[in-house]
Design brief:
heterodimer, A: 206 residues, mainly alpha, Four Helix Bundle (Hemerythrin (Met), subunit A), B: 103 residues, 4 helices, disordered N terminus
Amino acid sequence: MSTQEQAVVHVQRDDLRTRMGMWLFLFTELLLFGGLFFAYSVYRYLYASDFALAGKEMHVIIGAMNTAILLTSSMTMALSITAMERGNKRLSILYQLTTITFGLLFLVNKYIEWSAEISAGNYPGSTELAAKSHGQIIFYGLYYVMTGLHALHVIVGMTIIAVMCAFTIKDVITKDNYVKLEAAGLYWHLVDIIWIFLFPLFYLIN
Amino acid sequence: MEKQETQAEHTSHSYSIYVLVWLGLLTLTALTTVVAGINFGALTIAIALLIASTKSYLVLTVFMHLRIEQRAFKIFVFVAMFFLIISFVLLFSDYSFLQGFIK
């Protein structure tokens, strides 16, 4: 084995480790959201009718739109990696910027939705919500915590992708070394998966 | 030689497969939204979770490249999912057990 080949093997092994490290981090995220999903499932089991009542007031169209937006952003993220693999730097940057734009669109929708909920009096501590049943109050509590934590992840994801974009422009991320972009992609896809479960659990109860 | 092999391993995802999976994901989203309007009773939540799991599977295997990752990654994810599901099963067996006592 020549020294050049050894160097290549070494680089590849590093990439593998980076991705494995990212996956391990994602498992801790799974625990974080898993705990909240545990809480959700137990309360939904205990207050089934209250959850159904509160769920009817959710904005299904905004929820469905946001699902489509996030799924599309996941696709553009994956495409940016393929573009980088093929050495198409400009296309990769374009896809990364598209992904960030979709993330922003998601947050705008979230803002509209939360504003509507708050103006309807459905926020923790409001007199309107206090008058509702115990199960409905818990539903809204979980709704704000879980979608809020998720939105925070979207913001973090957008920031990471913005940094990756700068890295791509400065040639830190290149055709031969794009593992950072892959790791950022993994994070973004996890945020997408969490939303895939949040959507039916909060918006599609009847 | 080795570099060529590893690169071939990485470029096995074309643009078109992502677009196809994206279309599949959108279709499943439409399906779960429409199906939610129909009352299947206790099956409603099961159907919603089944569709969500299918979507996650697609994202994990194609978007997150698990399909072409080394076996160790697949085992890791499997173990993580396994313990998450076990926790849910234990949680609910505990709850239904306690409910029997409360009643």
